[in-house]
Amino acid sequence: MNFRFNLCLLCIYFVNVECIMWTLKPNTQKCLKEELQGNVPVIGEFEVSEAMGQKVDCVVRDSKGHILYQREDITKGKLTFNTESYDTYEICFISRVSQNVRGIGQDVSLVTKHGVETKNYEVLGEAAQLKPIEKELKRLEDLSNEIVQDFALMRKREEEMRDTNESTNSRVLYFSVFSMCCLLGLATWQVLYLRRYFKAKKLIE
């Protein structure tokens, strides 16, 4: 019983659903960023409060500036896109207010789902003629696979960061040794130069 309860808590913890609300000030933009793996479907539902003479645009792009979704003058709707590769993706809401209009803040709400949560298991279950328990097991299996992939990616990134740190440490060590050798060589040259100078001036024997 405890194992099943812990498994449910773990699955609930990793549900990829995010909901956020904020007030978008006039002639400003708000961007929400998230790192995602490649070939991951993303679905979002947004709603923007209306204001006379004000418009809000929605743009989704990656870190390279490629636009995956764009829509102008939004009020309520959905956005969908697929990630192309592992990258940081941002969903931006941009306020546009006419110069002759005194702008006010607009309330924006956004609910996003990605990965397993974008699948409609009711439709998949009916197509495959699955029982309710089988549909739930299928959803948990997909969710478990996604969690394993996320952990594998985290482990890979940790290994890359460790390799980078080790490489940086070795380079710093070599640079420090090189700097010490340069300083010792410079100090030796100064001593010899001053010794010859003082001997030339007959200040020392």
TrEMBL record:
Keywords: Developmental protein, Membrane, Signal, Transmembrane, Transmembrane helix. GO terms for biological process: endoplasmic reticulum to Golgi vesicle-mediated transport; Golgi organization; intracellular protein transport. It is a single-pass type I membrane protein. Residues 1-19 form the signal peptide. Residues 29-139 form the GOLD domain. Pfam families: EMP24_GP25L. GO terms for cellular component: COPII-coated ER to Golgi transport vesicle; endoplasmic reticulum; endoplasmic reticulum-Golgi intermediate compartment; Golgi apparatus; membrane. The chain crosses the membrane at residues 172-194. Its main location: membrane. Belongs to the EMP24/GP25L family. This is Transmembrane emp24 domain-containing protein bai-like Protein. The lineage of its organism: Eukaryota, Metazoa, Ecdysozoa, Arthropoda, Hexapoda. The gene is AUGUSTUS-3.0.2_16304.
